[in-house]
Predict the structure.
Amino acid sequence: VQLQASGGGLVQAGASLRLTCTASGSISRINAMSWYRQVAGKERELVAGLNNGGKIHYEDSVKGRFTISRDNAKNTVYLQMNSLKPEDTAIYYCAARTQGRVAYDYWGQGTEVTVSS
């Protein structure tokens, strides 16, 4: 499984961005995809996740502002980020979990989001 993330950038507080993660390879093995983010010196945290059953999870600080969705025809997962805040500044990673795995086992390269105040 290969994951290609894109869509990051530098925006002002209150703006919106949409991150895109396109999967390729053994896609049929994927049963969940998520977006994580990491700030230098801190642990990577789960931002939003979506499994094949349609269950969605959001980290508390992004509820109501971020939306995760997928387009199965394009093998793509999106993260729509609205009302961005400076504290959303991080490198965002998409991740895929394959069948039989508990943890996410495939990661994209990361896309940087910077929100200025």
